[in-house]
Amino acid sequence: MKNISFIFALLFVLILAGCGEHELVKDSAKESGNGLRLSYKVSGIVSAASRATVPVEEGEDQINSFYILFYDNDIVRGFVEVVDAMSSYSTAMSSVGVLDIEFPEDSNLSVLGDYVMLCLANIEDYREELTSVEALRDFCGTRSVQQVIDHLKIKISGVEPNREDPLAEQADNSNRMAMDNLPMSAIVTKAPRETDVEIELSRGISRFDVLSLASGYELVSASLWNAYTTAYVFGDDSRLLPAHFNGERTERYYGVGTNEQGQIVGSLYAFENYVKEPEQKDKSTTCLIIGLKNVSTNQIEYFRANISATSKGQILTRNSVYKTTVLNISGKGEETERDAYEKGNLLLELNINDWFLDDYGVMQYDGKNLLAMPTRKINLSGQEEVR
């Protein structure tokens, strides 16, 4: 019996020793410059009006590809290496997790390095030619970190107008942006000897939700028009699209139908936009063409809705949700989406994101920064009647 107890005790000691040796090897591997531990998450998507987080739809936080561009903080150009953070993964990653990244043996990466890390996720639908380590190395090798931040863009092909056959045009949704492969990015820094890095990825798109409360009509569809075909990869809510941005716009981008609840939620996306003075019939203000079925005639009518507050500029920011609610209809719509787009009749009473800043506050934009300041009561203390 004593021999058996001794054997168990010996095995227990050996197991503990083995665990300690494993942790020692792991730690010494990091210290010798072999890799990093990345704690990543996808940021929440927010209401464009309140900046409060709203629920994400299924797929909106999915990560299918993940590249990290390493730049040395101490050198002007400073490109060091590209790492495929998902090289050992065969399936998509969830919105929160931990990755252990091993540095390539033939690279100059080291945990002793002071790096800027440019993170790209889900860019394969938008820059197919840059979806490999080799292609990204070639792209970054001649550019500084600031040049990449300022100029790297994602693109969509854009749908060619089909004015001769508007019914065929509005049936073409081949350019639809996949909700389970939305472009994301982040910029983080790694200090010398730092081996644990946190990354928060943000989506590079605006989302458009639509519902209708109009009596006598049922929401059927909505399509996006006047969307930019390019956008910067890196940016956030404070780095808005500059007024001098010279990207091209498509006319009709794509459209979707309603869900089981008769709404459109989490399936319409476009790149950010800035228009100083929107006009109802212009070709620069991102707008929705909303299809509504008249229940008395059983006919679908189409209406144009610019996504901007009344008499205000359009400022569409990334990782933001714009909810358009049709409240009332004052006249007959058009027979096709294109007719509604080109005629631009103002027939819908809308509520966009509870967004009436002409009543609730002021908005100032200097081409770079956005300030929205409400003038109604702000409760800061939790007590009533505090302004």
Structural summary, described in words:
The protein is α+β, with helices and mostly antiparallel strands and 387 residues long. The protein is 16% helix and 34% strand. It contains six helices and 23 strands. It has helices spanning 2-31, 133-141, 145-151, 166-170, 337-343, 357-360; strands at residues 35-42, 45-47, 53-54, 66-72, 79-84, 96-102, 115-121, 153-155, 184-190, 196-203, 206-212, 217-225, 230-232, 252-257, 269-270, 273-275, 287-294, 299-306, 314-316, 320-329, 348-352, 361-365, 370-374. A seven-stranded mixed sheet has the order 5-4-7-9-10-1-6, covered by helices on one side. Strand 4 and strand 5 form a beta hairpin. It starts with a helix and ends in a 13-residue tail after the last strand. Mean pLDDT is 81; it is low at 6-32, 355-370 and 374-387.
Q: What's a concise summary of this model?
A:
The chain is an alpha+beta fold and 387 residues long. The chain has helices at 2-31, 133-141, 145-151, 166-170, 337-343, 357-360, and strands at 35-42, 45-47, 53-54, 66-72, 79-84, 96-102, 115-121, 153-155, 184-190, 196-203, 206-212, 217-225, 230-232, 252-257, 269-270, 273-275, 287-294, 299-306, 314-316, 320-329, 348-352, 361-365, 370-374.
